[in-house]
């Protein structure tokens, strides 16, 4: 310790400095206590005067172990005045400090020097206490007055620190889990027998088919070198470039040679060898360069990893692509000259380092030197070596690399060749992304194996001319087209281009997303429109596929007969329980599914349970489709654990034993097997949302949302549906892009209809429905919605929606039960309960308002709200109660206590004289928001009528709003309608008569024509439990609820709000709530 001690309340300048600079309490204690005295420090201390208080904590929740905040400190009186203070003041503070033991270790008050050991952070108060008592009692002259703030601080410190919330209220995990996953005894259960594996026909390889893709390029590149392999349209629809098989052979050889001989590393060594991985970065309008690079890699034995072109440094999902490239040890990226120019660059001209990506060498695959004549590609690698890696995205946005071996690639091409009847020289039109999945398998691999010609339609052209792919079928007499159902939909809308289209040459229209619920209507509509244009019904071929198992099934082109195609009308309710049940054709709650074709040749398919061990499903049970064939992925590159659970599944029979030694691969598709080996898909594992024990498919929800007038509100059908976990259960969120010309009112009307549609069709509530501006959601490279990035932004609060409708009350049904405070539980029982269970009884209770005391205040004698108004009209007659503002913010009308009372009396006379109202009759008040409604309400109370406030119908939307008004009038059993002239005119208009019969309304009275007489007698309810008014509200799902409010309830509610919100007569409150129900009406 420094040799010259200062009082506990004194603070030297160097202490202030240390306190302000240190970031933790440990620092400040070291600075104050344990540093040895130095001459410099002694000089500073000599100059200092004891005049600073230690800062008090801000509240009683502050921990004594937290660093003190710096505040302006008040000065103490000078030392020469201290003798005149009484002894009591000092013993007060010292007694408090002596008795204060907030921590288990008692303070050492006998030693006040640093030699006694360094104090911990928690001992700061005791340090102050001990030095205070030494100073005052040792000298006998240290007397001072303790300020109220310091005394308050010490009293606060006497109380124990507030404990963390879980100790007050501990969730009962088991109860909440049970509530989130209730077992419905009436839920349908599967009744069929255990399914048998579905076996595809034997794979028969056509005799003339090349044995591999490299052999195919060599054969066609030499034999038919002038035959085209690919033709690309530019964004204007012109045929810009074409590639022949001869050019494909020579260019792929050049790339292969360059990859194996070029020095990519700085030390001059050849960096690439057979088996290494390289990234293929080509835009979607450049399939020719992609083809050459892909086959160049295959011939060099190098493994291509096709990825999307990064647009900016922080693309949606860029980090995950970088993780894939890093795990694959990719060091070189192949690209085209045009693509390289378009990539973002640093100031030095190099390609920027994309977020999360490894450092890459960018290599342009165009304009390469000729290969030496004596050079030949490396000998063919074994069949089990990787051919290429296709990226796949998980539901949380994680990107995995599915490894496809050379054997699987070739076998899959042979299976597609047999199933689709591909032959040499056929023309194919491809609209899909050629870098992955169906686009890659058909337009890059199978087409080359068969020597076909593919016409590629870039996505940019499809946006400008949606009928371009049909025009190419007509021009080239194409036999095959590979599309998605969205292309069929947009093609239907391009009606002006339909006249010259002829689809008679098309023998196969492959629908890549045939598993989606909306593909059926697209296929049906497309067929009905284009059958007169030559399209054959048996040419439409939906298929099911995934990156892990490649093609699961495809409908065979041109096949007729009983089980060639199939469709089922299934119960949504049954599907939500994982059970297949047939429903009526036109039922709102049914889902019509089309088949995705038959099992592929040489494949075996089983359906296993979605949860738990991989038991085989029953024949009428929905599960995950698993495939066993030599043509599936083998692993997620570098992710062994995940690979085993996906690519090495052994289905179990009902006896719990594996059905065979064969290993199956999970497809991620949910469905069941129909008659004749037809595969039906009704969802995907990534889109599955389990809400309150029932399963819902995101695509089904999207289809329902799209059915609610999509063209009018939703921008290009862009909708994202996902679930988030709230209170141990999943909650559904729907995010959609709204059209630019949508008003807020229209948007909320549409959102309300969506909630009702989803509730009635799926029997599930939507937790959050949000609308964002057009083109606002993060996009995938092909323009779709990047779902995982959308969910991420939603969770981070970075989505910035234009309109939001949150409905937690309709879907969070497993709230924890409130803890009950039992009256017979004494203090001892509570202590025992705490010790045994480790929790506290928790309850929430507002402050007591006290009863109505007849003696205390004249205003409290008036128990009912109408009586309080009459009392105020006498005592504070000129006090302004209401000021109504118009749309420009100017004062439109004011209403004082006496004016409200007089107008209420006149309305009471009107109801008595013209309405012949009896006490207890219900009166419907249909007024626009304003002061007339308030006057009418009190007018009803003055004569004992029960008012029912109702929002008037919207003049522009009578069709939907007027029936609600009529329903409330009927349900409330109102004998009279009270309204203004304008509203009455609307109710009796011709437009309204088309919705509701004018003659069916009860009597209608106009408040614009009122008698000016005083009310002879004001009604007073005999008991406070008599009905005061009815509070009707319509929920977001369209449910009407009415609440009876008694006079006692009204008075209690008003008094409670007055106390809680401190509503004094001098207060001004701005109300932006409608005065029809709930809190809005009560505040008005």
Automatic annotation (TrEMBL):
Residues 12-21, 38-48 have a biased composition (Basic and acidic residues). Residues 240-637, 876-1081 form the AMP-dependent synthetase/ligase domain. Residues 1-83 are annotated as: Disordered. Residues 22-35 have a biased composition (Acidic residues). Gene3D superfamilies: 3.30.300.30, N-terminal domain of ligase-like. This is Disco-interacting protein 2. The lineage of its organism: Eukaryota, Metazoa, Ecdysozoa, Arthropoda, Hexapoda.
């Amino acid at each position: 310790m420094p040799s010259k001690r200062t009082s506990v309340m004194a603070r030297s300048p160097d202490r202030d400095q240390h306190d302000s600079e240190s970031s933790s309490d440990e620092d400040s204690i070291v600075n104050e206590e344990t540093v040895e005295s130095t001459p410099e420090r002694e000089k500073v201390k000599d100059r200092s005067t004891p005049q600073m208080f230690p800062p008090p904590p801000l509240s009683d929740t502050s921990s004594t172990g937290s660093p003190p905040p710096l505040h302006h400190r008040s000065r103490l009186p000078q030392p020469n005045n201290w003798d005149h203070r009484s002894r009591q003041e000092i013993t007060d503070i010292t007694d408090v400090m002596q008795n204060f033991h907030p921590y288990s270790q008692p303070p050492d008050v006998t030693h006040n020097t640093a030699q006694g050991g360094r104090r911990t952070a928690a001992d700061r108060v005791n340090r102050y206490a001990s030095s205070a008592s030494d100073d005052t009692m040792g000298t006998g002259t240290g007397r001072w007055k303790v300020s109220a703030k310091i005394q308050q601080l010490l009293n606060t410190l006497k109380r124990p620190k507030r404990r963390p919330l879980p100790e007050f209220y501990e969730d009962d995990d088991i109860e909440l889990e049970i509530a989130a996953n209730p077992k419905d005894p009436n839920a349908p259960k599967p009744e069929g027998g255990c399914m048998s594996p579905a076996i595809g026909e034997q794979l028969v390889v056509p005799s003339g088919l090349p044995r591999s893709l490299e052999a195919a390029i060599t054969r066609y590149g030499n034999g038919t070198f002038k035959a085209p392999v690919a033709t690309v349209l530019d964004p204007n629809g012109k045929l810009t470039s074409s590639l022949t098989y001869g050019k494909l052979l020579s260019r792929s050889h050049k790339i292969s040679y360059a990859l194996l001989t070029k020095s990519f590393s700085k030390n001059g060594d050849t960096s690439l060898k057979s088996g290494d991985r390289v990234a293929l970065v080509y835009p979607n309008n450049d399939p020719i360069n992609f083809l050459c690079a892909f086959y160049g890699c295959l011939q060099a034995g190098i493994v291509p990893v096709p990825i999307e072109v990064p647009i900016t440094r922080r693309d949606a999902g860029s980090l995950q692509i970088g993780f894939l490239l890093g795990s694959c040890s990719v060091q070189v990226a192949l690209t085209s000259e045009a693509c390289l120019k378009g990539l973002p660059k640093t100031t030095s001209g190099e390609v920027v380092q994309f977020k999360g990506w490894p450092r890459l060498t960018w290599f342009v695959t165009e304009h390469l030197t000729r290969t030496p004549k004596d050079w030949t590609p490396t000998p063919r690698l074994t069949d089990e070596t990787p051919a290429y890696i296709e990226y796949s995205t998980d539901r949380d946005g994680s990107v995995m690399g599915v490894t496809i071996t050379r054997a699987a690639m070739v076998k899959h091409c042979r299976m597609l060749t047999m199933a689709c009847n591909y032959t040499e020289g056929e023309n194919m039109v491809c609209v899909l992304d050629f870098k992955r999945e169906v686009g890659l398998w058909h337009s890059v691999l199978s087409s080359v194996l068969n020597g076909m010609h593919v016409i590629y339609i870039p996505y940019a052209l499809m946006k400008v001319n949606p009928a371009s792919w049909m025009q190419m079928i007509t021009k080239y007499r194409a036999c095959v087209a590979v599309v998605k159902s969205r292309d069929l939909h947009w093609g239907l809308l391009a009606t002006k281009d339909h006249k010259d289209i002829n689809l008679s040459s098309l023998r196969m229209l492959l629908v890549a997303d045939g598993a989606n619920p909306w593909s059926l209507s697209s296929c049906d509509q497309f067929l009905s429109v284009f059958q007169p244009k030559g399209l054959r019904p048996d040419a439409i071929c939906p298929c099911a596929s995934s990156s892990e198992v490649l093609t699961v099934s495809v409908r065979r082109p041109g096949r007729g007969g009983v089980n060639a195609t199939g469709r089922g009308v299934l119960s949504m309710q049954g599907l939500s329980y994982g059970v297949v049940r047939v429903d009526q054709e036109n039922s709102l709650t049914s889902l019509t599914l089309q088949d995705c074709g038959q099992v592929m040749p040489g494949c075996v398919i089983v359906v296993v349970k979605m949860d738990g061990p991989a038991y085989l499903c029953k024949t009428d049970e929905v599960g995950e489709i698993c495939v066993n064939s030599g043509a599936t992925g083998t692993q997620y590159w570098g992710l062994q654990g995940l690979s085993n659970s996906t690519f090495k599944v052994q289905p179990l029979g009902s006896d719990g034993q594996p059905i065979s030694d064969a290993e199956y691969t999970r497809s991620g598709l949910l469905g069941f097997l129909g008659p004749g080996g037809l595969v039906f898909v009704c969802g995907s594992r990534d889109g599955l949302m389990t809400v309150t024990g029932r399963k819902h498919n995101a695509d089904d929800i999207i289809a329902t949302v799209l059915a609610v007038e999509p063209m009018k509100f939703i921008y290009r059908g862009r909708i994202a549906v996902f679930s988030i976990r709230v209170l141990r259960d999943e909650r559904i969120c729907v995010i959609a892009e709204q059209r630019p010309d949508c008003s807020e009112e229209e948007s909320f009307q549409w959102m309300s209809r969506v909630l009702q549609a989803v509730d009635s069709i799926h029997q599930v509530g939507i937790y959050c429905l949000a609308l964002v501006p057009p083109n606002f959601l993060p996009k995938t490279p092909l323009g779709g919605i990047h779902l995982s990035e959308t969910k991420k932004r939603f969770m981070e609060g970075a989505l910035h929606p234009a309109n939001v409708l949150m409905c937690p009350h309709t879907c969070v049904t497993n709230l924890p039960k409130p803890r009950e405070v039992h009256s017979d539980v004494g203090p001892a029982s509570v202590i025992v309960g705490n010790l045994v269970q480790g929790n506290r009884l928790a309850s929430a209770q507002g402050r007591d308002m006290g009863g109505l005391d007849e003696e205390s205040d004249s205003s409290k004698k008036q128990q009912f709200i109408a009586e309080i108004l009459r009392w105020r009209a006498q005592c504070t007659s000129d006090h302004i109660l209401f000021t109504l503002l118009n749309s420009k913010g100017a004062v439109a009308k004011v209403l004082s206590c006496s004016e409200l009372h007089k107008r209420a009396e006149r309305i009471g006379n009107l109801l008595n004289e013209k309405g012949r109202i009896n006490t207890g009759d219900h009166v419907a008040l249909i007024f626009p928001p304003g002061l007339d409604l308030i006057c009418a309400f009190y007018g009803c109370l003055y004569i004992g009528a029960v008012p029912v406030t109702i929002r008037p119908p919207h003049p522009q939307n009578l069709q939907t709003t007027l029936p609600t008004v009529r329903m409330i009038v009927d349900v409330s059993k109102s004998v009279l309608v009270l309204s203004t002239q304008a509203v009455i005119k609307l109710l009796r208009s011709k437009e309204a008569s088309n919705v509701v019969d004018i003659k069916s309304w009860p009597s209608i009275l106009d408040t614009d024509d009122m008698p000016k007489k005083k009310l002879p007698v004001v009604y007073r309810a005999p008991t406070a439990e008599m009905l005061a008014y009815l509070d009707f509200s319509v929920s977001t799902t369209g449910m009407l609820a009415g609440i009876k409010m008694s006079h006692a309830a009204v008075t209690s509610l008003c008094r409670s709000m007055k106390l809680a919100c401190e509503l004094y007569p001098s207060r001004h409150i701005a109300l932006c709530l409608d005065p029809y129900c709930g809190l809005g009406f009560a505040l008005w």
